[in-house]
Specification:
The chain is α/β, with parallel strands linked by helices. About 45% of the residues lie in helices and about 15% in strands. The chain has 19 helices and eleven strands. The strands form two sheets. The chain has a nine-stranded mixed sheet, sandwiched between helices. Helix 16 links the parallel strand 10 and strand 11. Helix 1 packs antiparallel against helix 3 and helix 7 packs across helix 8. It is globular. The chain starts with 7 loop residues before the first helix and ends with a helix.
C-alpha cells in the first residue's frame, strides 16, 4: 500500500519517538524501576553524564557521554512544543519558529553526537586536573577540563586562552596549528585552553563565591601546575573579564595579555563631553555602542545576573530551549556575513546542555555581586594592570572603538588594533586576523615584555 506523502514526515517522527521510548523502557529496566517509580527516571537527566572524578594532577582525558543521556536528549528534542509566531520582524525578539523547527528537524534526523564527540577527541588534546586556591576564602577544590597543545619549537611562549559565553574551549580550534607550529619567522606558543569552571566539561562549583577573582586564581594555579610560571593570555567575553583579574592580580606570573573584550564604562566627564558634542570620533562611537548595548541588547545579562534560576529550570529540561537561548546570542554577536552550520549550532549548545546551564549562567550573578555589572551599566571594579596589555577591537562587538587613552585608565595598554571586519568571535570567524594580532603583540618584546 502506498501512503499519502503528507503522512511521511509524521512517520519519521513516530519512528524517533518509538525508538526513544523503547530506549527509555530499557533504561528503566536497567535502573530497576517499576512503573510506579517511573517518575524517578528524571534522575537520568539530572546527573552529570560524564565522569567528574578528576585527579589532583593533569591526566589525559577524552569525552565520553553516556548513551542514555544522548538518547533521552534526542527524545526531548523530538517532542518539542513550539511557540506561535506573531507578526514581528524575524529575530527582533529571538529565533523565529521556522529557524527553530529547522534546527529541531536536523537534530533528530541528521545530528550525530557520537561522530562529533569522536572528532573533538581527535582534534583536541584534552586533560583533566584539580587545583586548589592558596590563601583564598574559596576553599573548595576546583576540577578543570582543559586543552593543552605543546609546540615542538624551542622557546615557545606559554599562552592561556580563555573562552567566553556562549562559547567553550572549542573556540581555540582554529588557533592551535598556527600558534604551535608557525612559520620560522613567527613566535611559537604552547597553548592551554581550559573549560572555565562550570562550563563544558569543567564541573560546576558546588558552592557560591566563584567570583572573577577566584576564577583568575584558578587559571593561574592551572598554569603553574603545568610548569608555566610565566605565561601570556589571550581571551574575550567572560574570558576577557577574567583576563583583567588574572593579569592584574598575578603580575608575577602573567607577562602580558591580549584582549578582544576590554570594556571601560564612560565616566561622568566623558558623558558630559558627549552631551556637549565635545568627544572625539572614537569616543562618540564607543559611547553610542555601549549605550545601545545597555538599552537594547543586554536583557540576557540582566536575567542571568539577577535571577538565573528563572531561566535555568526550563533550559535544563529542554535541549532546544537551551539551544535557542545560546543561539540568539551567537547569531547576534557574529561577524557580518558569517553563516553558522546547523551541526555547529547544536554542538555549541551541547557544551551547555551536557553539564547543565546553571553554573555558566550563574557566573553572571557572581560578576554582578562583585560589581562587574551595575544594572544596565558597566562597572569599573577591575584592578589596574601593570603588565603590558594589547587590545584587539572588532566592529561587530559593542565595545568597538574604545579609545586607547580610555584603556590606559585601567591598564598599561601598549598595543591597539582596530579591525574593519569581524565581531565577538574572532578566534572562530576571523582566526587569521587574530593570529596576526597575537604574533604582532607577543612577538614584539618591546610591546609585550616577552623577550
Amino acid at each position: 500500500m502506498q501512503l499519502p506523502g503528507s503522512l511521511l514526515p509524521w512517520l519519521g517522527i513516530l519512528t524517533v519517538v518509538i525508538r526513544a521510548q523503547n530506549d527509555l523502557a530499557s533504561f528503566i529496566q536497567e535502573l530497576g524501576l517499576t512503573n510506579e517509580g517511573y517518575h524517578d527516571f528524571s534522575d537520568v537527566q539530572s546527573v552529570t553524564p560524564f565522569d567528574t572524578n578528576f585527579p589532583s594532577a593533569p591526566s589525559p582525558w577524552k569525552i565520553s557521554i553516556e548513551r542514555r543521556f544522548i538518547e533521552t536528549t534526542r527524545l526531548k528534542v523530538a517532542l518539542t512544543r513550539y511557540h506561535k509566531d506573531i507578526d514581528v520582524p524575524p529575530w527582533t525578539e529571538g529565533p523565529p519558529r521556522s529557524n527553530i523547527s529547522e534546527l529541531r528537524d536536523y537534530w533528530i534526523d541528521k545530528y550525530d553526537w557520537y561522530s562529533v564527540e569522536s572528532q573533538i577527541n581527535a582534534k583536541y588534546k584534552q586533560f583533566v586536573t584539580t587545583v586548589t586556591l592558596p590563601d583564598s576564602n574559596y576553599t573548595d577544590p576546583v576540577p578543570l577540563h582543559f586543552v593543552h597543545h605543546r609546540s615542538k619549537h624551542e622557546n615557545a611562549i606559554p599562552l592561556l586562552f580563555m573562552h567566553g559565553t556562549p562559547g567553550s574551549f572549542l573556540e581555540v580550534g582554529a588557533l592551535l596549528d598556527p600558534l604551535t607550529d608557525p612559520p620560522q619567522s613567527q613566535p611559537a606558543f604552547h597553548v592551554v585552553a581550559p573549560s572555565m569552571p562550570g562550563y563544558g566539561f569543567s564541573p560546576a562549583p558546588k558552592n557560591p563565591g566563584m567570583d572573577p577573582t577566584h576564577v583568575a586564581s584558578t587559571m593561574n594555579e592551572l598554569m603553574k601546575q603545568l610548569g608555566y610560571n610565566k605565561y601570556v593570555i589571550q581571551a574575550g567575553d567572560w574570558g576577557g573579564i577574567v583576563l583583567r583579574y588574572t593579569a592584574g592580580l598575578h603580575p608575577d606570573n602573567v607577562v602580558s595579555a591580549l584582549s578582544n573584550f576590554f570594556v571601560v564604562a564612560p565616566n561622568a566627564t566623558d558623558l558630559a563631553r558627549f552631551d556637549a558634542n565635545q568627544t572625539t570620533p572614537d569616543e562618540t562611537a564607543y559611547i553610542k555602542n555601549v549605550q545601545n548595548y545597555g538599552d537594547n541588547n543586554s536583557g540576557y545579562r540582566l536575567l542571568m545576573s539577577e535571577s538565573p534560576l528563572q531561566a535555568v529550570i526550563g533550559m535544563t529540561d529542554s535541549p532546544l530551549g537551551n539551544l535557542a537561548f545560546e543561539w540568539t546570542t551567537m547569531k547576534g554577536l557574529s561577524a557580518k556575513g558569517w553563516i553558522w552550520k546547523l551541526e555547529d549550532i547544536i554542538t555549541w549548545s551541547m557544551m551547555y546542555w551536557i553539564p547543565g546551564p546553571y553554573a555558566s549562567m550563574r557566573h553572571y550573578r557572581e560578576m554582578a555581586l562583585h560589581g562587574v555589572f551595575a544594572g544596565t551599566a558597566l562597572g569599573n571594579v577591575y584592578p589596574f594592570i601593570n603588565v603590558p596589555i594589547g587590545i584587539s577591537e572588532w566592529p561587530g562587538d559593542f565595545w568597538y572603538r574604545l579609545p586607547l587613552e580610555w584603556a590606559q585608565r585601567y591598564s598599561n595598554t601598549t598595543f591597539r588594533v582596530v579591525h574593519d571586519v569581524g565581531a565577538h568571535f574572532p578566534a572562530v570567524q576571523n582566526s587569521d586576523l587574530l593570529v596576526a594580532d597575537i604574533r604582532s603583540f607577543f612577538g614584539n618584546a618591546s610591546l609585550s615584555n616577552t623577550g
